[in-house]
UniProtKB/TrEMBL annotation:
This is TNFL8 factor. One of its GO terms (molecular function) is tumor necrosis factor receptor binding. GO terms for cellular component: membrane. Belongs to the tumor necrosis factor family. Residues 15-153 form the THD domain. It comes from Agelaius phoeniceus.
Length: 154
């Protein structure tokens, strides 16, 4: 299947509009709901400083966030997972998914969420991601598959 490295190679070979693109691995941070950026990835025409991406040119952007979650213990009660895409510290888009455990649930459970957001961004806008349950982000078995990406449309 496609992995972080596969997508990274593809994005490196296809120029984005005006060379503006970011594709960064994200991970959870201690005592914070905001995800941090890893050094590994693509960052062209955008400033990539953890925990935010800073836009350098105004325009129409596609922001996407792909996250894997791991529930080490089977829960009998529902868990709401919420991803918030923040622009300048304010929620610009959010995804809510309720994970409902069944009576026959296994010891471990995994879930993947994808959020896409098309928006106009101005110069110096800051993009970040928060989770309501960062402790469930799968940083262990799939650390390279948790990504935040931004592509500028021409």
């Amino acid at each position: 299947g496609n992995t972080f490295e596969d997508y990274l190679r593809i994005l490196q070979s296809v120029p984005a509009a005006n060379g503006t693109a970011a594709y960064m691995r994200v991970s959870s941070t201690v005592n914070s709901s905001k995800l941090s950026l890893a050094e590994k990835g693509i960052c062209e025409g955008i400033e990539c400083q953890s925990p935010e991406l800073v836009i350098r040119e105004q325009g129409l952007y596609l922001i996407f966030c792909y996250l894997n979650f791991h529930f080490p213990n089977c829960s009998k009660s529902p868990i709401d997972l919420k991803i918030e895409l923040l622009v300048n510290g304010r929620v610009d888009s959010q995804t809510l998914s309720t994970f409902c455990a069944s009576e026959t649930c296994q010891d471990e459970t995994f879930k993947t969420l994808l959020q896409l957001h098309l928006t106009h961004l101005d110069k110096e806008d800051k993009i970040s991601v928060t989770l309501n349950h960062p402790e469930f982000l799968n940083d262990v078995s799939l650390p390279n598959e948790n990504v935040l990406g931004v592509l500028m449309y021409s």
